[in-house]
Design a protein that fits this description.
TIM Barrel; Endonuclease - Pi-scei, Chain A, domain 1; 2 domains; six-stranded antiparallel β-barrel; 6 helices; 22 strands
Length: 334
Amino acid sequence: MKEIWLLALGEDWEEEKEKIKDAIEIGFTGVVVRRKFEDLAKKLGRIKVFGVENGVGENFAFVEVKSAEDQNKAIELSESYDYLFLRFSDWKIIPLENLIAMKKRAKLIAIVNDLDEAKVVLTTLEKGADGIAIQESRRDVMRKFYEIASGERGFVELKKAKVVEIKPLGVGDRVCIDTVTLMRVGEGMLVGNRAGFMFLVASESEESEYVSSRPFRVNAGSVNAYVKVGSKTRYLAELKAGDEVEIVNYKGETRRSYVGRVKIEKRPLILIRAIANGEEGTVILQNAETIKLVNPEGKHVSVASLKEGDEVLVWIGEKARHFGVSVDEFIIER
């Protein structure tokens, strides 16, 4: 997650206070205020607060980059400060690329004016700036900037896979993930026995004649399985309260959530094997009516009624994984 800062530099404390309260509630990293308001801002909630006077503070500085000389000055200052807040003139990308490549210890926070600028500076040289800073008073717009900086929303490409085998197994350990987020029908998590082939396992957001819905829950699968979290994978068995997870819907739209509780229990299991685009993958789930996959129309399909030939949604990756990170190496997973 990138950092996001609010520049609340007005002279009217009552006006700035409302902006800061919104920033705290949305989840901003920090706020920069006039030095005289620093103590007042710190009392509003748990957020980093920097008090500025004449463009500098105790461990940060503002730098306007208009020329190569300004760029070099910023590189020099990056050795002395923890944070540099950068304001660029008409040409932005090249000096930012240079600063990202040559900076010392300081975090680079780019001051942006709109959402498109935010997307650019956060992905420059693939790595991007360490964060963005905005001057904004509209809560809904602040929220959109936060979503970009946090990576809260994204997209993955899902594919149709044909089920080719359904095989009941014996008893094993399965993982149930209770999140801090309520999910809807058509949402769940990407889980599989291969890091490059994962099934969209549905949330328990549908009512059943046997149990009430649990829209915060994904009964995800056997302890050995991978779950996709952004660009990385995690083993289901290693998840714990507070860990980040990724919720995915049948359209491929993603959003961030966190684990509230994980339950590992012994349950009867079932193996599902499917093929998509010539690739084959498997997932092992609890063998129960309430455990479901998601079909291309976004409907939940119970493993109890699943048949060979049925279509379900999967995600296919490109590379192997080592400690959850994509790597180029020879590896076979079956």
